[in-house]
Specification:
There is one protein chain. The chain is an alpha+beta fold. It is built from three helices and two strands. The protein has helices at residues 3-8, 25-53, 66-74, and strands at 11-15, 18-22. The chain has a two-stranded antiparallel sheet. The longest helix is centred in the middle third of the chain and has 29 residues, at 25-53.
Length: 76
């Protein structure tokens, strides 16, 4: 299920004068996964733009080499 489908599955109820959106736990999880993907795509797009601005030079773009990143994580 896509995020849009999850949003379209929402049902509304009125309780104590308030309109409340209700969706299944499965639809909620699909919506969260979709939003995480949207966020990841944005992050990747930003990183690609920085890499292009650095002329394709990963170091100039501020990217760490894999082994260096792993070493920094291990040191935390």
């Amino acid at each position: 299920m896509t995020g849009l489908e999850a949003l379209q599955s929402v049902q509304f109820v009125t309780a104590e004068g308030r309109r409340i959106a209700v969706l299944s736990a499965e639809d909620w999880e699909a919506l969260v996964a979709w939003l995480e993907t949207v966020e990841d795509v944005g992050i990747a797009g930003h990183a690609l733009a920085e890499l292009r601005a650095a002329g394709g030079d990963r170091e100039r773009a501020g990217w760490l080499k894999w082994h260096r990143s792993a070493q920094e994580e291990a040191g935390r």
